[in-house]
Amino acid sequence: MYKDLTLVIPSYKSKKLILNHVKNISKKIKIIIIENSEDKNLKKNLNKKNKNVKVVLKKNIGYGNAINTAANLVKTKYFFVINPDTKIYKKTLKLLLKSCKKMKRFGAVSPNHINNKKKKYKHIIIEKETLTGGAMLFDTLTFKKLEGFDKNIFLYYEDNDYFTKCRHNNYKLYMISNSYHYHEKKSNGSAFFKNEKEKKYAYYLAGWHGQWSKFYYYKKYFGYAKALQKCLPNLFVNLLQFIINIFINLNKAKYIYFKIEGLLASIMGFSSFKRSKYD
Asked: What is the per-residue pLDDT across 93-151, written as a single tens digit (0 to 9) for each?
């Protein structure tokens, strides 16, 4: 069954989590890791003991572009994307494959969240508007036909963009109710930073890209005027919060400043250029 599947893991400063994933995944499954923090030690460590694992080192190209890069290396019919901090269970992949082989056409398939295990579902294959971004199975040819994730988005809204593109092209999204994953949302995701300064800067960048990508997404699918209508109210709120926090919380003020800058950059048509000075 696993001969049709490749596991794709986008990684950014996630060495411990990556090693744990590889240890717990069957050696029969091909694994492609796009290592966005150019961790040569991780690659060396994995290459020694795991013939089923391919590690590609990149200077941070973003989440969606990491998956696009991996998809171009996939040789199997399907590939499953999993975040380093997402857990899957013993039968997760088998049940996903079993279900997707019954489908003639789909944009992506996702396992259910383990917190929903006690819920009663009428069907195993359930059509959804959106899916869990940290655990998704794709048909490789379909993903390439749709040109994958938007290469202009560095971080955030890449899933929203892909799901919208699927709906516009009549590719449905499905959740498999008897297949499970677990993902605990954390402010810094799966990355482990060297010090508090680096961690704080990553937090600021998250605000920048969140706002840049939000405006870009709405402009792309709904037009410039609609994107302004959606984002300008939040800009005015952020400006007020920034002024207030200058006097009471400089750390929060800096985060809000990054959000404002990211939104203005997107409104003015600049690319998502902001990167960590620690990379």
From this structure: 999 999 998 998 999 999 999 999 999 999 999 999 999 889 999 999 999 999 999 99
Predicted confidence (pLDDT) at residue 186 exceeds the cutoff of 80: no
Say yes or no: 122 and 201 in one domain. Answer: no
**CA separation, residue 83 to residues 10, 11, 228 (Å):** 6, 8, 32
Tell me which of 153, 183, 213 is where a domain ends.
183
Distance of CA 96 to the CA centre of its chain: 19
In a domain, 120, yes or no: yes
Contact at 8 Å (CB) between 65 and 52? Answer: no
Residue of 71, 26, 77 lying closest to 53 (CA atoms): 26
% the chain with pLDDT above 70: 98
Per-residue pLDDT tens over the stretch 42-70: 999 898 889 999 999 999 999 999 999 99
Are residues 123 and 255 both part of a single domain?
no
Residue 276 domain-assigned (yes or no): no
Distance CA 218, CA 270 (A): 15
pTM (predicted TM-score) = 0.93
Domain ranges, residue 25: 2-183
Q: Are residues 234 and 178 part of one domain? A: no
15 in Cβ contact with 41 (< 8 Å): yes
- The CATH number of whichever domain residue 97 belongs to comes to 3.90.550.10
